[in-house]
Specification:
Layout: H1 2-23, E1 26-31, H2 46-57, E2 62-65, E3 74-77, E4 80-86, E5 89-97, H3 111-119, H4 130-136, E6 143-150, E7 153-158, H5 165-169, H6 177-182, H7 187-191, E8 200-206, E9 210-215, E10 230-235, H8 239-248, E11 253-255, H9 262-267, E12 271-273, E13 279-285, H10 295-303, H11 307-313, E14 318-320, H12 342-352, E15 357-364, H13 373-387, E16 389-396, H14 398-407, E17 417-418, E18 422-423, H15 427-430, H16 453-463, H17 468-484, E19 488-494, E20 498-500, E21 504-505, E22 521-522
Parallel strand pairs: 1-10, 1-11, 15-16, 15-17
Antiparallel strand pairs: 2-3, 4-5, 5-7, 6-7, 8-9, 9-10, 11-20, 12-20, 13-17, 13-18, 13-19, 14-19, 21-22
């Protein structure tokens, strides 16, 4: 009997050892970011900051389901188990909070924490955080106030009704009030001692060099407790450096390898992973100053682009993108088709009296979703100039370009467009952020201050429509209006290439800007 019991213990030990071996390994990621993203809540460095830092250290009330590769990612319960509109007030959303969640510092997650988190964006509140306000305000132009209803319920009230408000909530990361108060609101100290509820815990950081996280064994979603021992993030904005790091074994997971490196990586046994995702590589335009105030010039720029050449430049890891969202999007509709038409582009510029049509674009050297920005912009420049434009490229670091984008067109009146790739994973981030007057920068994402009465009417109708099918019809009209007005210059949709060491297993590339690294294992 004793021997049988010991045998069972030994067998169990062997099983545990096998499980531990499976879970072992260090996942080391080469990011395109030029620096470590901000760790104290909502990140900088674009959506790469969300992908690798924010959604690993933190949760939002509403998270994204990144478990599947065969469909667009959708929102799902996070720190809130459900949300609903208040039947007595269509500006008031009620969120039921998840029970039993703890912050990494051991404090319990409460309704008071949620109210406190939304207070970080109030200049009059003691927890006012200027950096977090700057990084989050584009997601909060419609937010009015938060209130505790009871211990497990909070209410978020908007300025105007919005059936799409849950999407905005998914971009606001919840941080520990307990940790912030213990540090007496020293935000610099918090950056090196962050506390969230996410699947990873902060372990250590070497500024500008590396960030290391370890699994949160107490994570509330047991299926998403990380299966590797450690996650290491390295900023590597140079694509050739990322490729060399993967081939040498310095890293085992690389973002955005260059097209010309793909054959070498494949021949070296690396796995190249791609998938469609809601992305557009485009230029937001200046509607206050310069030639793009004229719709004929905006349309000319779109007709001047031979997008097939851009796809070829990228080694086929992109799709032509002559409209704002990919054709498979439920509200794509029947937009104007900006197929390559050089004679039409020239004629529109001549009609507009803008030949040569001098424009300046602010572009980056690298960055989240930026693909291969330097060669791509050089190709676009040559195509536009063939049509009659005269293009100046103003090159800057990714974070500098994002700061320009957040600051708005009035801080850069001599810039006619900014090349900032965009997520189109929901109607707000995909369309309304760039069309609403309420979103004019610096309050929101409408950098160039586009305005149309018709667009305002359509957006208001969509926000006030809580019937999904009826709202889809209105969103379709918004997309068609956006394309007809040539609100941007659209180029391609990325296929999101990544290169992985053969030792990396379990990664499922979601159709999203965000990715779930928790299932990944790394063989030793």
């Amino acid at each position: 009997m004793a021997r049988s019991f010991l045998s069972r213990l030994a067998a169990a030990g062997l099983l545990l050892s096998a499980s531990a071996a499976q879970a072992a390994g260090v996942l080391t990621v080469a990011m395109t970011a030029g620096d470590i993203p901000v760790t104290g809540g909502n990140p900088d460095q674009g959506f790469e900051g969300f992908r690798f830092v924010a959604t690993n250290l933190y949760d939002a009330l509403i998270n994204w389901d990144l478990s599947r590769a065969d469909r667009l990612a959708v929102i799902k319960p996070g720190l809130a188990t459900e949300w609903r509109i208040d039947p007595a007030n269509t500006r008031r959303w009620l969120f039921t909070l998840r029970d039993g969640v703890k912050w990494h510092d051991g404090c319990p997650f409460t309704a008071d924490d949620v109210v406190w988190n939304f207070g970080r964006y109030d200049e009059k509140a003691p927890q006012w955080n200027p950096q977090q306000f700057a990084l989050s305000r584009a997601y909060l132009p419609n937010f009015d106030h938060a209130e505790k209803v009871d211990d497990r319920t909070v209410a978020l009230t908007t300025k105007i009704p919005s059936s799409l408000f849950p999407y905005e909530v998914s971009f606001i990361m919840m941080t520990s009030r307990c940790r912030a108060e213990a540090l007496k609101y020293d935000w610099a100290a918090l950056a090196s001692q962050p506390s969230g509820t996410g699947p990873y815990r902060f372990d250590r950081m070497v500024p500008h060099e590396r960030l290391e996280m370890v699994p949160n064994a107490e994570y509330w979603d047991k299926a998403r407790v990380p299966k590797q021992d450690r996650l290491v993030l390295l900023p590597m904005p140079e694509a050739s450096t990322r490729t060399a790091a993967l081939l040498s074994g310095q890293v085992n997971f690389v973002e955005a390898p260059t097209p010309d490196a793909l054959p070498r990586l494949k021949s070296s046994g690396m796995r190249i992973v791609t998938n469609a995702y809601p992305h557009n590589w485009s230029y937001q335009l200046n509607f206050v100053n310069g030639p793009f105030r004229d719709v004929r010039v905006r349309r000319a720029a779109n007709y001047a682009l031979n997008r097939a050449d851009v796809v070829e430049l990228l080694g086929g890891v992109a799709q032509e993108g002559p409209a704002n969202v990919p054709p498979g999007t439920s509200y794509y509709g029947h937009p104007v088709s900006y197929k390559y038409d050089l004679p039409k582009a020239k004629a529109l510029l001549k009609e507009a009296g803008c030949v040569p049509c001098k424009v300046t674009f602010a572009i980056s050297t690298s960055g989240s979703g930026q693909m291969q920005p330097l060669p791509m912009n050089e190709l676009i420049k040559s195509q536009l100039e063939e049509a009659g434009f005269e293009v100046t490229l103003r090159v800057m670091d990714w974070n500098a370009l994002l700061a320009l984008a957040r600051g708005g067109v009035e801080t850069a009146p001599d810039v006619d467009g900014i090349n900032v790739s965009r997520a189109v994973q929901d109607p707000i981030n995909g369309m309304t952020r760039f069309m609403q007057k309420a979103q004019w920068s610096p309050k929101g994402g409408n950098w160039g201050h586009y305005y149309s009465e018709d667009a305002e009417t359509l957006i208001a109708a969509a926000f006030n429509e809580f019937d999904l099918e009826k709202r889809e019809g209105i969103l379709t009209q918004i997309h068609e209006k956006m394309v007809d007005d040539a609100v941007m210059i659209w180029v391609v949709h990325d296929l999101n290439p990544r290169a992985l060491s053969p030792k990396v297993q379990g990664f499922v590339q979601a159709q999203s800007w965000f990715q779930d690294l928790t299932p990944v294992t790394v063989a030793k």
